[in-house]
Each structure stands twice: as structure tokens, then as C-alpha cells.
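Field reference: sequence -> structure
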Amino acid sequence: MRAGTSLYLDLVRFAAALAVFLSHYGTRHFTGGMLYQMQPYGAEAVDVFFVLSGFVIGHVTASRETDPRSYIVNRMARVYSVAVPALLLTLALDTAGSALDPNMYPADAPPHYQAGDLFRGYLMSALFVNQLWTLDIRPGTDWPYWSLGYEVWYYVIFGVAMFAPRRIRVWAIPAAAAIAGPRILSLFPLWLLGVACHRLTRATRQSVPIGIICVVVSVSGWIWYEALAFSHGRLYGLAPDALSRPELAQDYVVAGLFALHLIGICHLSDRIAPLLRPVATPIRWLAAATFSIYLMHYPVLQFIAAVMPWPLTTALAQASLFVLTLAAVFLMAEVSERRKEPWRRAFGTIACRVFPPFPRRRVERA
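Structure field:
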């Protein structure tokens, strides 16, 4: 991947994670609705993450993860290096927080708050079967964890399509899709849009005019949609009940606009690189914590709010909640996603014993 594109995507990843954090931080539950305007952008940021994920997987399977063993090992290391610490952190903070301030963990919350569902919620979340079909099980207060129950299945289906022999592929793909169910599959095109963006941009030479047009049209389209949403309401509630995601129509709009933006950025990569290279180190450092910010901020927010000595509507409490939560998730990033290598070695050892050697596909050159 070209340096300009890589740095820009890292910047977008961090911005999207921060948008999800602010969409929760600014709710009435935590700050009295101080940043209520940010709430819709959390859902849009998840759309951006899905497209980005597909783009990155398209890149790595075309460059270095060219056999099923390396694909499986790297995907599992990437996911579990953050998912396991997030589950343990959530369990510990929820247990302590609910004992200290039960009002922050109300009994009439969804089922995953109830003690009787703890084992089921955490086990199913760890196995990423918590969102199959009509299930909506999340571990404790870790609300954003739902998206992992989608994304892991995209890895599975795409991995089978890329690496399985044809005689296996013809039945394994429909089988995996049938297990995942319509809700997970409803957002799969967003993820595949990222893969398509990668393949399209690899197959075409960079063109500055095309890049400018794509960026201008995508940004203008997003501003136009936000203006319409402000005046007439967002595209919510248009999906069939079986899909159980009221933002589905908006998901496709936002993902389509971001995919167009992504294509434009790839065409402008060589022009962007000199602008971002001087700040490459801080961009990379921030981006290396985005998964932790996304997956761990909610239980940390909940716990800190539960032990906060000042009313949550005061400026001191709001500032403390903001700073302490970000500090905690950045600290967790140091022992989770920044430490993927031990997980990769462990899964690699298991994979060597389970899977036979596979021939590598020819690596494409950018």
C-alpha cells in the first residue's frame, strides 16, 4: 500500500474510533447530553470501519497473507489480541462498578446486564456467535462489541472464497452465510465494497483529476446528506424487521460515499504523502490504539462514571471522564493490539500442527 494512502487511512481509523467514543461519551447517561449532536456519527463511523476492514483485507490477501494458514493466524491474532483483554476488562469493571453504584448498571437494562446471562453472554461473544440471526447478545456493558460478531463472519466467508478448493467453496460459502443469518449478511456488501475499492485502485493508474473528482463528490455528498438529515430526519427504520438494524439505509449511503472517497484518496496518494509524512509517527501511534478505543471505551466510561465523586453534569466530572477514559484505553492498547506478536506466535504454533503446508498464491505487486 502506498505511504500516502496508508497514513491517511490510519488517520481516518483514529477519527472514526474517536467519533464512536464521543457518540457515547456525549449521551445523557454520562454527561447529561453535552455532546448529543455526536450520537448519529457513531453509527456512521462503524460504516467507515466496515469499508476500511474490507479494503485492508483486500490488501493483505493480495500481498502477504497468500495462504490459508497465514490468513487464519493473522486474523485470529488481530481479533483476539484485543477481544480477550476487552472481555476480561469488561467483566472486571462491570463487577466492581455495579457493586459500587448499582444505579449506573440498572436492572431494567438489556439481558446481558443480568447476572444469570453473564456466562452465555461472554462465551458467545468470545466465539463470535452472539449476533447470529436474531441474537443480540453483548458482553456486559461493551456495546460496541456487536460489530465483531459481524466482522469475524466476513473474514470467514471471504477466507473460504479466497483459499478453499472449489469443491469445498461451493457448499462452504452458502453454509457460512446460512449460519451467519440475514442481519450479518445485510452489512456484508459494505465490507465487500472495501475489497472492491482495493482491487479497483490496484488495477488503475493514479490520476489526480479522478482523485480530486472522487474526493469532492464524496465530501459534497456527505455534507448534502447531513443537511437533509438535519432538516428531514435520517434514513432510519426503512429496513425489514428481520434485519433489525434501523440505520441500514443510511449505512449504504455512508459506505458508498466513503468508498468513493477512498478511491479518490488512492488516486491522490502520492500528493498526500508529503503532507502526512512529517507527522507519520504520531499518526501511526494513534492508529495503533483505534481497536482498543473502539472496543474498550464503553465499559471504562461506565466504571469511571460509577466511581466519579462529582455530579456527572459538572465540568470537572465531564473533563475527568473524558481524560481518564482515553488514558485508560490507550494504556490497554499497550498490552493488547500493540502486542499482537505473542498471539500470532501462539496461533501460528497451533496452525502448524492443525493445518498441512499450503502453497502460496503468487503475490501481486503494486
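Note: The chain has 16 helices and no strands.
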